[in-house]
Amino acid sequence: MTDDTSLPSRSRAVADALAEAGLPGEIRVLPDSARTAAEAAAALGCEVGAIANSLVFVCDGAPLLVMTSGAHRVDTAHLASALGTGPITRASAAQVREATGQAIGGVAPVGHPAPLRTVVDTDLAGYDLLWAAAGHPHTVVPMTYEELLKLTGGTPAAVVPPQE
Q1: DSSP letters of 42-105?
Q2: Which of 73, 88, 113, 157 is deepest in the core (most CB within 10 A)?
Q3: Burial level of 116, CB count in 10 A (0-12/13-18/19+)?
Q4: What pLDDT score does 40 carry?
Q5: How far is Cα 77 from Cα 64, in angstroms, rounded to an integer?
Q6: What is the pLDDT of residues 63-90, one digit of tens each?
């Protein structure tokens, strides 16, 4: 159990957002960095697909947060087509920091300076428990797919084409 005063400041903002949303997820501080889905899965003893990666893109001139399964990479052309938007491109580190207030490797689904348009990978629904970064590369928070949707107000979407 971690009390909020022991968390990094960016993780405290995430804890506040979780509490405001009425979600029970308790932020866990990991001894080592969990900047990648593989590192997080190894530290948590879960499947890499249960890691809800927070990736920031630029779409139609605005940031787009994509919460995707750690088991695959976002197909930006497929996602743009599914959403009916213009091209989706990866945000720079500076754009990620500006949009989220958090560094790459620790971007949480919430706790940002302003709400972000969010897409939630439908593949995440296949896991009973998900783990998302909590504002810092050493912090994670557990939640269900339904809680992730509620927390972010995200649009469920397939971020990769269906397997044939």
Answers
A1: HHHTS-GGGEEEEEEEEETTEEEEEEEETTS---HHHHHHHHT-S-EEEPPHHHHHHHHSS-TT
A2: 88
A3: buried
A4: 87
A5: 14
A6: 999 999 999 999 999 999 999 999 999 9
